Amino acid sequence: RSTCAATSSTHPLLRRRGYSSESAPERKVAVLGAAGGIGQPLALLMKLNPLVSSLSLYDIAGTPGVAADVSHINTRSEVVGYMGEDQLGKALEGCDLVIIPAGVPRKPGMTRDDLFNINAGIVKSLATAIAKYCPHALVNMISNPVNSTVPIAAEVFKKAGTYDEKKLFGVTMLDVVRAKTFYAGKAKVPVEGVNVPVVGGHAGITILPLFSQATPKANLSDEDIKALTKRTQDGGTEVVEAKAGKGSATLSMAYAGAIFADACLKGLNGVPDVIECSFVQSSITELPFFASKVKLGKNGVEEVLDLGPLSDYEKQGLESLMPELKSSIEKGIKFANQS
Ligand code: NAI
């Protein structure tokens, strides 16, 4: 690695510490739901990532077009589109990382939990295929409700005897991306340098941004912190309402998903000190799954970091989110074990 120069681009997706695209290990990445609102821009962003050598684009419809389009981009990875369930096995075989943005998005007036009935079944069937065709892959779950779909996937993997808690991630990165953007705006600091951990889960009040730990520090009032917290929690709904029936966040989600996938790949490749927030199996609270800062390594989760010091406001937020998060987790587990 020491012989490789970083590329000169300043964009985080293209900037590589310690690898050039020629020397990075071969990595196959699949996007399941690749023809969707998130899937298409995510396919584009993963095609731009020099850590990917093979990009597998799967959906129940539309993937030949997306794959042909993306494949013309002159970057490292070879792109193949797979369509329909009989091609799912080929799409997954040999994968190091599987990203799942498959399923229906929210419309105005819906909560993420309203998506449960349709998306739970989709996630269950995709997880079953992952257990069969690429049981050792890292899984990045984007499909909502993440608070339930991650436990569903865990149960499916347990039944198949392939569960490795270090390899299953609920993608909460968009909450972090939003918290950073909103904080930078309020604190009037350059957004590139901002860090804000977001913990808990990925729906409404279960999203708990820890602005008391935000860097760089800013002297924001309690009212400002409350407003920032609420805006982060309602960020998804802000987009759903603005899109007025045409879906939920897709472009910002694709960005967040690509950043998180990149962090997972860096961890797999042995880059040190890769830390991002994610909803994972956890023992830092009494709940079996919880989002917090996670250190990523060669086997996925290397360490689940604890919450750190919380303000009184955050302590209250933590207490109020626990019952809802608990019931969403239980709902997922129950669904996976029935039928
Ligand atoms: P979309 O409807 O535009 O795309 C979903 C895609 O999934 C479609 O192309 C559809 O054909 C495909 N699909 C359906 N069943 C499938 C199956 N069995 N196998 C493979 N693909 C299948 O929806 P969009 O906007 O891309 O959202 C996708 C999911 O991501 C939704 O559940 C949404 O709630 C979630 N989401 C999660 C966020 C997060 O922060 N984790 C943020 C925004 C959305």
Automatic annotation (TrEMBL):
Q: Is Nucleus tagged as a keyword?
A: no
Q: Which domain of life is it from?
A: Eukaryota
| Residue numbers binding substrate | 106, 112, 144, 178
Q: Give the active-site positions.
A: 202
- A single Pfam family it belongs to is Ldh_1_N
- Write out the GO biological process terms: malate metabolic process; tricarboxylic acid cycle
The reactions it catalyses are:
(S)-malate + NAD(+) = oxaloacetate + NADH + H(+)
Xref: InterPro entries: L-lactate/malate_DH, Lactate/malate_DH_C, Lactate/malate_DH_N, Lactate_DH/Glyco_Ohase_4_C, Malate_DH_AS, Malate_DH_type1, NAD(P)-bd_dom_sf
Q: Where in this chain does the record put each Lactate/malate dehydrogenase N-terminal domain?
A: 28-170
Keyword Oxidoreductase belongs to the record? yes
Q: Which residues form the Lactate/malate dehydrogenase C-terminal domain?
A: 172-335
Q: Which UniProt keywords apply?
A: NAD, Oxidoreductase, Tricarboxylic acid cycle
Record-listed NAD(+) binding positions: 33-39, 59, 119, 142-144, 253
The EC code for this enzyme is 1.1.1.37
Q: Name one GO molecular function term.
A: L-malate dehydrogenase (NAD+) activity
Top-rank EC class of the record's enzyme: oxidoreductase
State a GO cellular component annotated for this protein: mitochondrion
Q: What PANTHER family would the database entry show?
A: MALATE AND LACTATE DEHYDROGENASE, MALATE DEHYDROGENASE
- Family, per entry: Belongs to the LDH/MDH superfamily. MDH type 1 family.
Q: How does it assemble?
A: Homodimer.
The molecule here is called Malate dehydrogenase
- What is the protein's species of origin? Rhododendron simsii
